[in-house]
Description:
Blueprint: E1 7-10, E2 17-20, H1 23-28, H2 32-42, E3 44-47, H3 54-64, E4 74-76, H4 86-89, E5 108-115, E6 123-127, H5 128-133, H6 137-143, E7 147-150, H7 152-159, H8 165-171, E8 177-180, E9 182-184, E10 190-192, E11 198-201, H9 206-220, E12 226-229, E13 236-240, E14 244-248, E15 258-264
Parallel strand pairs: 2-3
Antiparallel strand pairs: 1-2, 3-13, 4-15, 5-13, 5-15, 6-12, 6-14, 7-8, 7-11, 9-10
Amino acid sequence: xxxxALTRKDLTARIACELETDLHSLLSGKYADAIRxxxxxxxxxxxxxxxxxDEQQLTFTKTLGITPQxxxxxxxxxxxxxNPNANYIRGxxxxxxxxxxLDVPCFASIMSSRRLSESGGQTEFANTYAAYDDLPESExxxxxxxxxxxxxxxxxxxxxxxxxxxxxxxxxxxxxxxxPLVWKHRSGRKSLVLGSTASYVEGMDLQKGWALxxxxxxxxxxxxxxxxxxxxxxxxxxxxxxxxxxxALPYAMDSGRLMYRTQIAGDEPFA
Length: 271
Ligand SMILES: [Fe+2]
């Protein structure tokens, strides 16, 4: 079999590119370095209608890095028969970064579509590197050194605004995590750390802190920093979780939408 080259097409000016190559090259790891590089540069890398099997998706994922053992392949669905934690998935309808309750979040997530909803269910990604880069210099200085307390319960309140004490106690098993508002990456690049777990700005008046977090989320999610993936069955999308936020657009609980997700472990703490 003759291998084809890796071809690239940028999908918007500031975020996302689509790649094309043959399956054999993809699974062999031949382009793994190039893909990792593009992931950091473009935030999102998409392949159209690849139709990988579970096993192929895992093989491909392992060419890109180490997979966290506990979650080798995760089924993302709201069908309560297939996913007992379907309610948690609704949290994905709001902008977030995966793993803000950890010191080291995953580097990337890889999602493939198996069944789609009739309407909704697109995934949106916002480039948090580009959003930081485009801030006025005076504002960059003001954000320097600010810390944000992230709480699991803050994200859960979006989907369950009036929890019982028992529910709240369960949420609070996750301890708050204090993270820098501006992440200084080892590469020297900087990105904003925002999203639904962001509870309050440390040491700042609560209202002022909320205003700041909300204004920055508006800023980071304006159209020029955002790519919306309109799924076709068999698509595979990878995102750099350390330089983007994401959310799913709402879809019906009983729509049958089913995605398979694998992850690449991170090796860079929030700093
Ligand atoms: Fe997520």
